[in-house]
Each structure stands twice: as structure tokens, then as C-alpha cells.
């Protein structure tokens, strides 16, 4: 049976680029939003979902984190890191120059990654946010107005657009992390070298306990477990209530992680393992 993979679409998004780079021969289905893709995995409409998690310039895709924590809990099976190259895309019929472009369309993260270029080169263009870079490219392809999209070369190819200016992102080391979500990890087959392995934890602290976060970090520190990321997000239960997402740079084992979990639970923390998984770095 063919494995089905869902991704944030439509054609031409960076998520689709990640999926095409890693998976071959599977049935692929696009979704308009991140929650729709996650829900489809939860409802068994697809086997695997691929959604963006974090960009090196713009930071965490908060919708992905919040939806996985508050709405649908799915195991993280793998992580794909993809270099991001943002280009200014125009309709192939466009013959003007930058001063003629009246609007720029793209996902909010893509717009933010190209803030300086837009500020300096397109100061009079209106900014319009879309659900994805692919959707922006699709919009430009069907418009007769002098508008542009920010997206990748896959989007330009898919929608017959012209790359007006290449590499307009503000910083060169631009990468995005994508999560691979699935109920059954055996369905995820990625035949690429593993760059590293990590484990992601969801931790909530006990209320009204001074120094709780310090004690949490100490539980990892004295075991010499390296944390590559720690991020707080609102619990949505009131001001001042947060949960923490912690990434540990090693796979789950039967000694260190159970020890951390037991120590933190003794402090009154709740600990949930979101996934222990390989990380694949993709070179385009």
C-alpha cells in the first residue's frame, strides 16, 4: 500500500520542497493550513504530515507548536532541515521595474525574512500576507496587476513565474526546520544520512514555586545532557502560565531520560515526551 503524505500547500511551498526532497513515490496531498494537515494525520486521512516548525531568521512557527500541544498530540518522527532561498517572483508578462510593483504577497514569515529588501527596494509596495509562499505565487500567476510574490524557484516553475531577483532574504544562513508527524513511525522511510538525533520534551512547571525553572535545567545539566533549545509558550489558562518545549541533543535512552523525568516529577512538573527522532539536513 502506498504511503500518503500531507504538507502545507499548495504547490511551490517550502514544505512541498522538503517533501519532494525526502520522499519519493508516495501519494502527496496539499492542505491550505497547518491545522488541516495535522488534523488529517490524526483522523487517519493521511499517514504522514510535514509542517514547518522554525525558521533561523524569523523563529518558531507558533501555530505549529500551539496546535500540537493544545489541540492534537502527534508523535514527532523526524526533522528535516532545509536551506531557504527567497526570491522575488513576478508574472511572466511583467515588463516593468521595481518601482512599478504595487503589492508584495507571501507568508508572514517569508515577508519578515526579506524585510530589508522590501524596505530598501520596494518602499511603496503594499504588503499582503497569504497562507503560504505557494499560495502567493499562485495569486501572482493569475493576476494582471503589477504585483509580486516572495517564494522559491519551485514555485516559479510550478506557476510559470519569472524570478525577478534572487536571494532577497536578509541573512544568508537561512534554514527552516520541518517536523514529520505520524502515528506509526514504521511508515516513515527516509533513506538519507542522519545528521544527529534529538528528543523533544513538553514540561509544565509547578505554580508558586521559586526557582523551579532553574531546578529543571539543573536536572539536565548535572547529567551533562546538552539542550539545543528551550522555549516558553502560554498555557492559555491565564496570564503568567507557561509550558516549555525543550530539545535535547540525544536520543531517548533507558537511563538518563527516565532519571530526568522522575526528578522533575518529584518537583511537581509534568513531563511529556513529544518525540525522539533523527534529524536530516538537506542540501539543495
UniProtKB/TrEMBL annotation:
CDD domains: ACT_CM-PDT, PBP2_Sa-PDT_like
Superkingdom per UniProt: Bacteria
Enzyme kind, highest EC tier: lyase
Residues in Prephenate dehydratase domain copies: 4-183
This protein's pathway: Amino-acid biosynthesis; L-phenylalanine biosynthesis; phenylpyruvate from prephenate: step 1/1
SUPFAM superfamilies for the chain: ACT-like, Periplasmic binding protein-like II
Keywords of the record: Amino-acid biosynthesis, Aromatic amino acid biosynthesis, Lyase, Phenylalanine biosynthesis
Residues of the signal peptide: none
Record GO terms (molecular function): prephenate dehydratase activity
Occurrences of domain ACT (ranges): 201-278
PROSITE patterns to which the protein is assigned, alphabetical: ACT, PREPHENATE_DEHYDR_2, PREPHENATE_DEHYDR_3
Catalyses which reaction(s): prephenate + H(+) = 3-phenylpyruvate + CO2 + H2O
EC code(s) of this entry: 4.2.1.51
NCBIfam families in alphabetical order: PRK11898.1 (NF008865)
Name of the protein: Prephenate dehydratase
